[in-house]
Write a sequence for this structure.
C-alpha cells in the first residue's frame, strides 16, 4: 500500500492526523498534511483507509493492496 | 402551490431528543433533493440523502454568499445562518484567508498539546458535579450545568483568549443570536456580540497573547482588507460555534449512553478502548440542526437529477444524511462497532468544520472520564421529559438530570 497526499487540495482539517498519528502529521504553520511515511505505520492500515475515506478534500490516496 | 399537497416547512418536529423527525426519511424516499419552505417561509431545497449532501458540500459552485442578497431566500429570523453572508465576488478568497489564519490554532499537533489541559478541566467539572450531588444527595444534578456547558466554554475561552468570567454574557448573546424567531433582538444581540469581540481585540492589540484572537489581530496588521467588522464577526462566530455545538454533543452523547443500561455498561467496562468509535457514533446520530447548513447556488447546478437555479437556497441536512440507510445499515441504531463510519457531522469539503479536531479531542476526553468516575450514572427522568430545543439554530436539549 502506497500513500500519496495532495497538499494543494488539503484543507487542513487534520482528521488524518487524529486517525493515524504515526502516518500523518500537520504543518504547524499552514496546517497542511505532512506524510511521515508513504506506507502506513505499523498497525495503522485500517486507520489509513479510514483517513482516505474521511478526508474532506479527498487529498489522501492509497494505491496497491 | 396546490391546496391538496402543501410544501413542507422547517423545522420538523421529532418524537424525542434522540430521534430525528420522520419527515426527513419520508422526503428522502421521494427524492434526495426536496422543495421545502424555510422557517421564515421562503422556498429552499432540502438535501436529505448522504450522496447528494456530500456532493453539495464538495461542489464549489455553492457558497454562503448570494449574487443578489436582497432577493435571497431568508432562512429564519435568527442572526446566524439566517441568509446570505459575505461578498459574492470575494467569498472564496476570504474563505481561504480565514482557513489559513485559523488552521495552525486548530491543527492536530496543537490539539495534542491541549489534550492534558482538557483532561484537567474535565476533572474540575466532574468535581463540581460531585459537589453539587453531595450538597443535596436526594436531588438529581443537571449535567448541562456542571459539564456539558462549562467544559467547552472553558476550552474555547482558553483557545480564543476570552475571559471565562464573561461566560454568562456570551452565553446569553449566543442564545439570542441563534433563536430562529429572534428578529430585531437577534440582530441587536449580534451587534452587542461584535462590540464585545472588538473590545477584546483592542486589548490583544495592546498586549498580544498566545491565543486565536491575538493571531487574528496580527493578521489584520498585515492585511488592511481584513476589517474590524470581519474580525469581530469571525470572533463571535468562533465563540458561538465553539461552545454551543460541543455542549450539545456532550449532553446528547450522555443521553445516548444512559438510555440503554447495557450500552452504558459496555462503554463503562472499557472506556478508553471504545471511546474513538463511540464518539463517532454519537457524532453521527446527534441531530443538532433545525434547518441544516445553508448554501446558495452560485450558478445553475444539477444535483441528483434536480436542477437548482443560480441564487436558490440549499439546506444540507447532515442529520438526515447521517441516517441514510443507503450508506448506514440500521441507520437509527446506536452501533459503536460501525466501521467505516464516514458521517457528515462536520460537513466535508473546503468548508469542513475547522473545530472538528477540537470537538473530537474534547469528546474523547470527557466520556471516558465521566464513566470512569461515575460508572453507575443514570438518567433521573424519562427521555420524554427532556425537552428538545426546536427553535434554536444548533438544536440541543435544555437539561440532562442525572443521579448515581
Amino acid at each position: 500500500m502506497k500513500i500519496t497526499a495532495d497538499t494543494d487540495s488539503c484543507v487542513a482539517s487534520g482528521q488524518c492526523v487524529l486517525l493515524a498519528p504515526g502516518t500523518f502529521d500537520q504543518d504547524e504553520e499552514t496546517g497542511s498534511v505532512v506524510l511521515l511515511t508513504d506506507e502506513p505505520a505499523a498497525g495503522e492500515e485500517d486507520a489509513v483507509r479510514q483517513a482516505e475515506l474521511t478526508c474532506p478534500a479527498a487529498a489522501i490516496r492509497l494505491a496497491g493492496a | 402551490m396546490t391546496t391538496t399537497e402543501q410544501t413542507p416547512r422547517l423545522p420538523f418536529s421529532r418524537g424525542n431528543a434522540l430521534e430525528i423527525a420522520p419527515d426527513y426519511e419520508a422526503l428522502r424516499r421521494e427524492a434526495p433533493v426536496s422543495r421545502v419552505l424555510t422557517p421564515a417561509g421562503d422556498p429552499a431545497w432540502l438535501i436529505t440523502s448522504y450522496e447528494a449532501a456530500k456532493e453539495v458540500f464538495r461542489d464549489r459552485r455553492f457558497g454562503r454568499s448570494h449574487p443578489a442578497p436582497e432577493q435571497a431566500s431568508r432562512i429564519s429570523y435568527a442572526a446566524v445562518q439566517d441568509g446570505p453572508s459575505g461578498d459574492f465576488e470575494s467569498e472564496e478568497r476570504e474563505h481561504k484567508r480565514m482557513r489559513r489564519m485559523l488552521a495552525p490554532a486548530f491543527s492536530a499537533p496543537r490539539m495534542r498539546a491541549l489534550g492534558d489541559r482538557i483532561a484537567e478541566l474535565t476533572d474540575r467539572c466532574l468535581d463540581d458535579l460531585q459537589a453539587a450531588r453531595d450538597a443535596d444527595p436526594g436531588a438529581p444534578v443537571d449535567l448541562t450545568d456542571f459539564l456539558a456547558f462549562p467544559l467547552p466554554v472553558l476550552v474555547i475561552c482558553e483557545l480564543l483568549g476570552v475571559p471565562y468570567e464573561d461566560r454568562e454574557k456570551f452565553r446569553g448573546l449566543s442564545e439570542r443570536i441563534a433563536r430562529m424567531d429572534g428578529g430585531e433582538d437577534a440582530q441587536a444581540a449580534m451587534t452587542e456580540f461584535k462590540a464585545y469581540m472588538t473590545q477584546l481585540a483592542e486589548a490583544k492589540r495592546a498586549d498580544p497573547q498566545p491565543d486565536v484572537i491575538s493571531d487574528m489581530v496580527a493578521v489584520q496588521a498585515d492585511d488592511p482588507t481584513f476589517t474590524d467588522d470581519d474580525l469581530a464577526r469571525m470572533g463571535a462566530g468562533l465563540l458561538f460555534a465553539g461552545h454551543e455545538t460541543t455542549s450539545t454533543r456532550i449532553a446528547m452523547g450522555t443521553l445516548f449512553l444512559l438510555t440503554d443500561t447495557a450500552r452504558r455498561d459496555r462503554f463503562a467496562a472499557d472506556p478508553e478502548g471504545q471511546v474513538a468509535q463511540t464518539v463517532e457514533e454519537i457524532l453521527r446520530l446527534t441531530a443538532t440542526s433545525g434547518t441544516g447548513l445553508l448554501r446558495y447556488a452560485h450558478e445553475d447546478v444539477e444535483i441528483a437529477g434536480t436542477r437548482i437555479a443560480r441564487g436558490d437556497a440549499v439546506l444540507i441536512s447532515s442529520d438526515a444524511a447521517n441516517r441514510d440507510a443507503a450508506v448506514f445499515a440500521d441507520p437509527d441504531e446506536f452501533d459503536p462497532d460501525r466501521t467505516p463510519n464516514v458521517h457528515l457531522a462536520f460537513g466535508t469539503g473546503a468548508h469542513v468544520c475547522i473545530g472538528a479536531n477540537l470537538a473530537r479531542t474534547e469528546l474523547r476526553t470527557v466520556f471516558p472520564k465521566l464513566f470512569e468516575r461515575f460508572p453507575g450514572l443514570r438518567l433521573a427522568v424519562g427521555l420524554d421529559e427532556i425537552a428538545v430545543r426546536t427553535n434554536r439554530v444548533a438544536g440541543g436539549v435544555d437539561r440532562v438530570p442525572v443521579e448515581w
Chain B touches chain A through 28 residues (CB under 8 Å). The two ends of chain B are 54 Å apart (CA to CA). DSSP finds 14 helices and ten strands in chain B.
